[in-house]
Amino acid sequence: MTTPAQDAPLVFPSVAFRPIRLLVISAVLTAAAVAAAGFAGHLMVGVFFGVGLLLGLLNALLVRRSVASITAKEHPLKSSMAINSATRLAVITVIGLVVAYIFRPAGLGVVFGLALFQLVLVLSTALPVWQKLRAGDAAESAGDHTPDGTERGNSNDA
């Protein structure tokens, strides 16, 4: 028998979240965006792009804080995580859209910065996990074969 999703325990995998690395990547991307936008004659687009990257980093840090506080409870609820996520995303989105509207058209850089940060966040957390999984698969398959490539433990010659 399976447990319905709403009754299942709340479990969060540990991820390779490195805020300092994300800050450095954001700073490099901001510098590149400012340089490219300045070269194109729209310096403020690059600046607002950097603001979007920083808003994305702020969101990621708030996610980590909220996950830590909610999972520290004896009986964490999925609904509290969902409400927290929806509220946080709504606030970040409203801030981004207000900046984009007030400082239009250059303010649209904030929206693009937020979007790119999400891609950077996914890649920076998924790639180390994927590499670790592949290393585990390689170690597991290496344990099943001898150095000359033949399989171990399948002696059906008897």
Written account of the structure:
With 158 residues, the chain is mostly helical. The protein has a domain at 19-70 and 106-141. Helix content is 70%, strand content 0%. The protein has helices at 19-39, 43-71, 78-102, 108-143. The longest helix is centred in the C-terminal third of the chain and has 36 residues, at 108-143. The radius of gyration is 23 Å and the shape is flat. It starts with 18 loop residues before the first helix and ends in a 15-residue tail after the last helix. 16% of the residues are buried. The mean pLDDT is 81. This is ATP synthase I. Keywords: Cell membrane, Membrane, Transmembrane, Transmembrane helix. Its main location: membrane. The chain crosses the membrane at residues 20-39, 45-64, 85-103, 109-130. It is found in: Cell membrane.
SSE inventory with pairings:
Layout: H1 19-39, H2 43-71, H3 78-102, H4 108-143
Helix pairs in contact: 1-2, 2-3, 2-4, 3-4
Notable characteristics:
158 residues, mainly alpha, ATP_synth_I, single chain
Question: What would you say about this model in short?
Answer:
InterPro entries: ATP_synth_I. One of its GO terms (cellular component) is plasma membrane. The protein is mostly helical and 158 residues long.
**SS elements, strand count:** 0
Query: What does the main sheet amount to?
Result: none
Global Rg: 23 Å
Coarse shape: flat
Tally of helical segments: 4
Report the order of strands and helices.
HHHH
Class inferred from helices and paired strands: mainly alpha
